[in-house]
Amino acid sequence: QIQLAESGGGLVQVGDSLTLSCSTPASNFSMLSMGWFRRAPGKEREYVALISRSGNITYYSDSVKGRFAISRDNAKNTMNLQMNGLKHEDTAVYYCASGPRIVTMSGHYQEGMDNWGKGTLVTVSS
């Protein structure tokens, strides 16, 4: 079981920026595909962004493309999600996830992840 810890959530205004971070003590971090997912109130958990093991391939959901940026630092065992132009509908608990592979088939994004953090709450107020 890989421990993942999210940080950086909080209360922001519409249009603001926020950076989420995910850290892990896992010694094989560079071998893990990583991703961010979120669960909005009353909704199912959904995919936000994925990043390959090296960090040179990224994927974004249509709802965040152009506003969010996922990145990782394998030397520091960390992954970030830079969120710009936040909207009210971005309000959610954001989860960091890791897994052996990236699945890009629509509706199946979570299948490549087998470890999850506890989540960090992002609230965007208008």
Task: Count all strands and give the number.
Answer: 11
Radius of gyration: 13 Å
* Strand content range: over 45%
How much helical structure, as a percent, in the residues?
Answer: under 10%
The largest β sheet comes out as: 7 strands, mixed
Poorly predicted sequence stretches spanning 5 or more consecutive residues? none
Structural class: mainly beta
The protein's oligomeric status is single chain
Protein model, in words:
The N and C termini lie far apart (39 Å). The protein is 0% helix and 46% strand. It contains no helices and 11 strands. A hairpin with a 6-residue loop joins β5 (45-51) and β6 (58-60). The chain has 126 residues and is mostly beta strands. It is globular and about 40 Å long. The strands form 2 sheets. Strands 2, 4, 5, 6, 9, 10 and 11 form a 7-stranded mixed beta sheet that branches. It has a 4-stranded antiparallel beta sheet with strand order 1-3-8-7, with no helix packed on it.
List the helices and strands and how they pair.
Layout: E1 5-7, E2 10-13, E3 18-23, E4 33-39, E5 45-51, E6 58-60, E7 68-73, E8 78-83, E9 92-99, E10 115-116, E11 120-125
Parallel strand pairs: 2-11
Antiparallel strand pairs: 1-3, 3-8, 4-5, 4-9, 5-6, 7-8, 9-10, 9-11
Summarize it:
This protein has strands spanning 5-7, 10-13, 18-23, 33-39, 45-51, 58-60, 68-73, 78-83, 92-99, 115-116, 120-125. With 126 residues, the chain is mainly β.
